[in-house]
Amino acid sequence: MAMTKPEQAGLGDELFGTRLGEVRNGKAGPEKGQFIPPPDVRDSDERADALPEQEEFWRAPVRFGSVPVESTPLGWDRRRGFRKLYPQVMLPTQVVERVSFGHPELEPNRLFWGDNLHVMRQLPSESIDLIYIDPPFFSGKQYNVIFGDQNELRSFTDIWDGGMPGYLVWLNARLYEMKRLLRKSGTICVHLDWHASNYVKIEMDKLFGYQMFRNEIVWDYGAKATQHKGHFQRKHDVLLVYGRSEQSKFKPVLVEYSTATLRERDTRYNHADEDGPYRMTTRRAPDGSKYRAKVYLKEGVYATDVWRIPIINATSKERIGYPTQKPEALIQRVIEAFTEEGGIVADFFGGGGTTLVAAQRLGRRWIACDQSRVAVAITADRLANLVDQMALEQSGKSFTVPDFIVEHWGIYEAKRLSEAPQDQFRAFVLRAFGAVIEEHDEGIHGYKGAIPIWVGEPDQKKAVTAADVQAFANAVRKTLRYKQDNLRDGIMLAWAFRPDAVEAAERLRRLERTDLNFVRLDMIRIDSARFREHVSALSTQNADYENFLTFVQPPKMEVGFKRISSRSYKFDVSETLVLNPGAKIINVQWDFDYGKRFSSTPGYSFVRGSNKEPELQSEYEFPTNGKKRIACKVQDDMGGEGLWTAEIEVI
Fold first, then answer.
1. SS3 state at 225
2. The CATH classification of domain 555-650, taken from the options 3.40.630.30, 1.10.10.10, 3.40.50.300, 2.60.40.10
3. pLDDT in tens, 271-284
4. What is the pTM for the complete model shown?
5. Fold for domain 6-253+316-409?
């Protein structure tokens, strides 16, 4: 299916950072290695939607017997909304990869790694047509932690420690942002199971309004059941569907008669031949006589709110290896019902990327986020494979697919940052530090409040010198604040400071006792806890921000291989050195036909052994002899990712 051009897609001008048709350096959207600053977002009280007015018959009573009844969502503060528990954190995003499909002029789709609450807060209001999410089901910590990233483990702590109320507060804060992101014609679909669906519906009624409730779709996934003692086997999930307003779009979906549920089937179509199901009816001939005729069911039947779609089994071609993967047919039906071709689909619990795969196939634009670095890597790889497959299917026909970019929020690749151009590096550091860029005062790069800021070199090997310290001190003395307001402080931000630089700053400080020409310079390493104090200070009892604004290093790749038989080789990454303290390898991906971009070989993207640990050794039989380019990606549980490539002679 050919993808739509951006002017056909209905994509909001502001969603991806540039207006449609606006080109940066000859290409639309950010390039690999660029940093996207957070937008100017007004205070939550000014930009947030008020809670909806509920219909009188639904309005909650003040008390239920002797128990007070809360009419607002759990976690909601009447003055600050959900920002009381989850304060605003505005950090830039780091573009670590741009996966190209040959159309750089098109606005790229976006895939984020980071905390979805804070990513969503930096996206523009009313910019998305459909949000489908498959959040944790509150079915147990070990079940919901899928990929094993430390980031993933930490993020679930508040949920489980707070029980069901904690889970609902955590989810409510995110649902509130999703409501803001939906267009007036938009729809949200929340996928849950029996553990929490009833509780979540009550909260969504408060957030979206009872009158905006559209459907409770029952997904009967049809697996074989064995009777449990004490209750019937649980074999369905539910999808709670709410519209953003009365303008929310909906299009009925036709399903094949053979796959329709009994409730969906028109039982009159109780015959079938080579042309399909049919029913017999009485017709009148031109001469007035009656006769019996077949009426075929050619287009299918309309889907009801009970969907019978098989779960992904162990032998399915869709299966990529993790336990909560949903079938593409399920999400495809959701997308078809609530969006038009070219619409924007979002999934902020992206997992393995099934929503994006379905959206890509159906010609929709997309945006997604996940807190697991492994999930993002698997999703990016899966999308690259999909586009390659679609290109083969569309061979010889018009085929246009936008690129997509992978962006990090809150945890950044230090090596990539150190390779950035100096202007981009300085802009990133200033914004991450909570400062604003200054382009008028020579020798000063920005200000935090009234304090001048200076930023060192991107190269981690270039430490700040005494000459740098003296030059910055002189620049501070030339400012109006120094001359008029007697403000004599400055801050230097850099990867490292040489001993002579530290001594030079100390000499300037000692002048405070004897000379009015003193300047107090504070030296802060970019990768230190002091650099992120303004973020960690926002931590509350219910929000752990200590790990935001940290830097990770890629593993030092060491890959061995040996021939074990004709065209068969064994590859080993066990000697790879993980550079992030306390980290370990949690995923390995292999591409045995490496070309312009990494696209893992089927079955080599998320491989686990019997102990559910990643396989560090893999065997592969090449289809032919000759020179082969191969590649390997490794992710550790702190978020570091390394890439190794080689060319071997297969015999």
1. coil
2. 2.60.40.10
3. 888 777 778 888 88
4. 0.86
5. Rossmann fold (3.40.50)
